[in-house]
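TOKENISE THE FOLD
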Amino acid sequence: MRSPGINYPRFPLGVWLAAGGATALLLAVSGRYGFHRDELYFVIAGRRLDWGYVDQPALTPLVARASESLLGTSPTALRILPALAVGVVALLGAAMARRLGGGRTAQLFAVFAAGWSGVVLGVGHLLSTAVFDFLFWALALWLLVGILDGADSRAWLALGVVIGIGVENKHTIGFLAVAILFGLLLTDRRRLLAAPMPWLGVCIAVILALPNLVWQAAHHWPQLEVASALRARGDGPLAFVLQQPFLLSIALIVPVATGWWWLARSEEARHWRPIAVIYVLLFVTFVVVGGKAYYLAPMYTVLAAAGSIWFERLSTAARRWVGVLTAGSIAFGLFIALPLLPPQASGTLDFTGELAETVGWPDLVDQVAAVHGGIPEGQRAAAVVFAGSYGEAGAIDVLGGDAGLPPASSAHNNYWLWGPPPGGAPIIGVGQVGEVLTVICPELDQVGIIDNPYGVDNEEAGLPMWLCLEPNGTLADIWGLIRHYN
């Protein structure tokens, strides 16, 4: 084993440049296209801070609140911290490679594998729970690599802090915590659990996670309902397996697989064996529970770091070929993960649809404002906007003020929990709300179809807009019946 204590690395200059380059690239493209639907929702959630929300814990809305307060309301303002998080993830990949025994070449390979893969840049382009989930997983795995290599036992306390705060961002890191426990129990490193420090770390994690857990319990665990709905809409176990290579920018499959094999079978890596077991446990768990493919992606940071040892030991010619293939794969992934092309190309190249969801929100708001402006002047002041999703509602709340639109309401996720609008008529319906509105609207007119000037086929394109001038009741009358959690 190497020297005790957490190994704070002194990186080669190339590592710093690669990590900084990932952050700089994300910042450079942060203002292209526009807000993502989730970012709009996070901004509104941040304006209504709470210990939890029906579909997420409190941290990412808190980040949105801080970003908006300090830097203003713009996509770039929201995306600065995510870009910095990606740079830290890249550095942690190099740090893990160094702790695993890698030299300069291994660290350089690991920083690109950790910070420049398509999935990392894709989530890092947006403010989301996913980008900070990557950060907390990378921190936790870096600490675990050090603990397994003989770091000071106080590193368990730091691990508890990371996991506890990570739960306040996204609950999936709890799966990592459980997998670490069983990964140790299933290997000869189980003796580490005989000391008090790991259990003190568990206590710290539970205490830090408690505010959100209490909020969830007080609201009857809505996130379980959201998770069930997402699982029902998932692509299934086969798609989960088949999507894993695309998370790795294809060319990283071999280094990652080799890294796992080295951790699992090499006598040299015997004391890091639990990490290989943890990956298998998480893979099986996410397949069984119907998790999304990207839930497993943060584990590839440490597996790529292990694979960098293999890369460093290749011959010069072999390293050159692997490096060229990796660089080509990363370059191709840039056009899928980031808004480098004109917006009209986003729906074609963006396999996940996330870039397409950053196009067209100002146009949606303008179209809703046109409907609002067409309401007779005597009725316009009392009009309400009812949206089918939190994205549509968030766009109206974030971007609609200058257009004179009233605050939006929706039955989707935490918007439902925030309650119905105070007014009752007229009602402007946005999106898939026609069936709901017919309950209280004997005369419901479709007054438009949402589109965008780029022809991007996102979730909003083609949705109807409705107008109900004289409803028989209010949305408050049916609010308890129209909740929509997913």
User: Anything to note?
Assistant: Residues 13-349 form one domain. Strands lie at 384-387, 408-410, 427-430, 445-449, 464-468.
